[in-house]
Amino acid sequence: MKKILKKLMDEYKFCCIHADADDTVKFSYGKVIGLDDYFAALSMVSPDGVYDGVQLLLIDDIVYAERSVGYDGKMAKLMKSRGYVHAAPTVEADDILQWGLEYAMKNRKIVSVEFENSKIIDVSGFVEEIDGEMCRLSTVDEYGEAEGVSYFEKCRITNLCIDTEDEQRLLRLVDEELRSMG
What we know:
alpha+beta
């Protein structure tokens, strides 16, 4: 799969990434913007044709990738009508997960983290510290309120979303004081 993802990244074209073996119809749409031995970084586009953040996926979890003329055409129309602007950062790193955590911490972006392929968002919040393999996250609830602190090992992360519509919504709910801490 890594070879295919590298080809898609080099071509810098939109594609569908299917990463749910239990529901192979479900996919993320975007461009592969980073790759290492374990993770792929995907700059995503929402089904409505707007920038939808960055998702870091374990390569081993990716079932298949595809390019679809019909879907690409549909998305091109939606993106044009919505004034799509590619807002994803440039990824120049040998460790995609480390890059994502550092990017989110430096830019005060909310992240959503899935652990151990749980298929749910286990925690959401601001990355406050990365110390070797350990991370500290100031968590926020669905209302944008401070919830507490989570500590975890990076090796437990199987999916990391940065600045997607869900995180952007949470960020709008977070009060200014919490947003600027760090």
